[in-house]
Amino acid sequence: MATLLDIPLELILKIFSRLDAKSLIRCAMASRQIYSVVEDSPLLRFIILSYFTGFRASGDTSLMQSFPDDLLRTLERRCQAWVAPQWTKTFSLKFKDTSIPLHCTSGIFSRQHADHLEITSICTEDFAKVAERTAKLNLQSQLQIRENNHWIDPSQDLLILIGENGPVPSDETRIFHIHLRTLSNNKSHPQAIQPFLQFSVPPNQEGNDIHKIHVEIARNMLMMAFNTIRQAWSIDTPKRILVWDWITADLILDSSWPTFDDPDKILRASESIVGFLDETHIYAMSTFHYSAVHLYEIVEPTINNPSPLRYRAQLSFPSTCNDIRIIGIYHEAGPLEAQVPPYHSPNIRLVNDDDLIHVFALEYGKYPFDGTTEFYGPFYVYVHQHSLMRYFSQHEGATLHIPWRNWGPPNARLIAPPRSSIRISAHGQRALLPRVYDGLPQLDRDGITVLDFSLASVMAAQGKQIPFSTTPVSESEQISERKSGTLLPPTTIQCSKIPVYTDDVETHLPCVAIDVEIQGMETLYMIDEDGLLRLNLCMSVDGSDIRSYYVVDKYTV
């Protein structure tokens, strides 16, 4: 599989622009590629160091608490050493005001001061040279711009600012303006019919202000989500979500009405996470419902269905996930094969110029009683566009099963990615193993086999000897084995066929030989009278041991 070094810098910027600073560094550390990546890219050195400096400036200590101090200091020292001498003055000038947060979108760094917006853009005309241009956009006082509330979309020369329509008493309805400006010269955006979008906030027990503002832009669609209560922890306290066509100024969605029937409450819960999948689909996940990410479609309201938002499906996750965070969404087709592990299926092609692959990058956390948080990931969710649309139309509200990457034991930590992993490779291509739930590999409901892997679902069998079935080999059947021992990692085991179940019919992948690599866990093996190697794989999940017994026909130790 190609590394980040093989990806054009434009694509890396596009990917990194969708991640916040914490997620960027987590992803880099998880892949253990950050050193090799930035050593070959002056641009990435600049970006990563800027992220670090932005963390220091914003006072965000959550990243610093997530990793050991010595690791962070080492990484930061390396980043600083990588920065070219000619950038020293730029950094000292740019970051001298440590009270103002730093934002980054698609290689453009911005800071909002009291009277102006400082923007630094990075140009990559050729990948060997990095040029910097800093501009100051004066914020007109009559716009009454809110502090630290700006968003940019460089691809459309779009600058989003939030202003107010004059001071209003806290017990009256408050009017807010979303100003649509150009990033290049801070003028009204020529594509927008109106210079600003408007919405109102009625008073509540805390006043009429908005908190935890989140803005996303997907071409002509603009989404704003916010809370009207500063400390909103109850699911009965709705998050308000507004979606406009910012070019025509049409309000597409206003989800502020108090409806709490599932699944609407997940979208409207105060602590929900929302975002665009594309211009017509929204994803939402509530921190009160950790098991799934819910997908909605923006539709034309009708008499029978007046809501502009239609619930479509959900991406489900293992019940052991306490907290799922969407740390990135990728909307590219071909080059993604170099960025994320390939997802192979007989019915799906990863790279197709005519089809679009949506890939969610996720991480999830567990919260021990000692007050710390352990994060796992990143994991990737693959959604094929046409399969997804067919899935929506044929199985509305059904569950989409997803493949995971690097599924680790509960004590795994992100800074030391789970070494307990099992992989198979066919013809040099990485493939994923079917996951087992109660002895059955999972299928999605449109007939496409989901290839997945976990420690408890390693399977390798000779097709006619002992096929992979719903009944694992019992411990009593192991007593008569002639030979046993401990298989020390790393070990390579060759399997002639892999059984895959589709619609209850056993089929096999057309592979001549597949290597199964077992690493980082205790594996007992036994050789029966027929000379077959039988594996006894043990994994502990939440204190309960899960054992699986599988058979292979060729092995090397």
From TrEMBL:
F-box domain span: 1-47
Coiled coil: none
UniProt xrefs under InterPro entries: F-box-like_dom_sf, F-box_dom
Superkingdom to which the source organism belongs: Eukaryota
Pfam families found in the cross-reference section: F-box (PF00646)
Protein's recorded name: F-box domain-containing protein
Species this chain originates from: Pholiota conissans
